[in-house]
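Input sequence (478 aa), recorded before submission:
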Amino acid sequence: MEDALRSWLVSSAAIRSDILALLGFGLAVAAMIHALLHKREVGAAISWIGLVWLSPILGTVLYALLGVNRVSRRARQLSASPSRQADEAPSHAAPVRPAFASLDHAVRQITRLPIRAGNAVQVLRNGDEAYPAMLSAIAAAERSVALSSYIFRDDGIGGAFLDALVAARSRGAEVRVIIDGIGSGYFSHRIYRRARRAGVPVGLFMHSALPWRMPFLNLRTHKKLLIVDGATAFTGGINIADENRVALQPPDPVRDTHFRIAGPVVEQLTMAFASDWAFVRGEELEGERWFPALAPAGESLARVVTSGPDADIEKIELVMLQAMTCARRSIRLATPYFLPNEVLASVLSLAAVRGLSVDVIIPRVSNHRLVDWATRAHVDPLLASGVRIWLNEPPFDHSKMLVVDEEWSFVGSANWDMRSFRLNFELNVEVYDAGLADALGRSMERTMTARLTQADLARRSIPAKLRDAGARLFLPYL
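Predicted structure, token format:
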């Protein structure tokens, strides 16, 4: 009896082993076929295929959770036109100077949006300047307020914004608020709950606890956008949090740059918000309340560029590439995180090689040490080609700006990393205005005091070099 039981156990174990082997083989084959058909980058396809064959079951599970691009399938729903009126509005298209004609043509092809004339763009530094202007605009709202923020904290300034939104709604203005599902806390959304209790229409962007949907890794709306009465807009890099009120000396201050925009291009900003709102809450925003006729407010030419892991994928990156390719004198950029892919890095290097002045400004210490380490392992070829990299001294500066030939500026929410270019939903604005470019250039010049050199990189210890090189392997996910 004992021998029979032992034989049965051995036989059962062998059968289970065979079943697991067949299951693993089938899963590995399925994952390999999917990677071959859907992975755009050869390196990524090879890595995933190697993993699923090395560990068929675990590797396939990881591939299903992290490697399958559900982002594209789900995000395409965002591309619906937000309102018929926005589609029918006059284009206010305007020609740019001949030196920038090819850039204008390329960006129009990339975005399918016209350049808009008659805009005014004002620079606002830190929350100390931006928040009072934003709150004042909300306080004056008569018809509508649209607000989208990656981070919206339930702190002093967050409470002030919520109070202003509630007051605007009580006056009869329509209010809509989008908060990212992870930026303000994946498991805790206090400001969201407070807004709902106050009757403010609010939505969490791509928030789900279901692990197979993985929105907390891939789908984030990184946009910072406030639009009042469809006529005055604020956008840039500033979230809603006390840390941005630098003058109040918070524990971990964050410097940043925001922009107040008025004029016909605000319609494109409203269209971007309306598209997101239609996706989050299924409601279309239309009519004069959201899309009024917009008179000229200044002399700037401007256009909105959105990007995300849907039909808009890589649009911001493509615009940057086109602008740098068209550059004839200078390229100057500031970013909190600098991990460009090989194509962007090559374009910067080639610009320096052909004699352009190329300056990159990054924080000496950012709020993500892993990114700092990876950056040190990533920039040596740029330095070798003549690109100047400057270290912005603390406190941490979260500004994102690109200025080409002292006339064309590109500002907004996108960082210079793979997450912003490929995974996040981002919004930037291109502006043809020598005055704005000069103001941004002078702002950047004030931070260009300490250079990162090849000698600095060479002086790192072997353990530091290994640490930095290891961090760089996570470049697609940082």
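Checked by second reader. The first strand starts at residue 116 and ends at 125.
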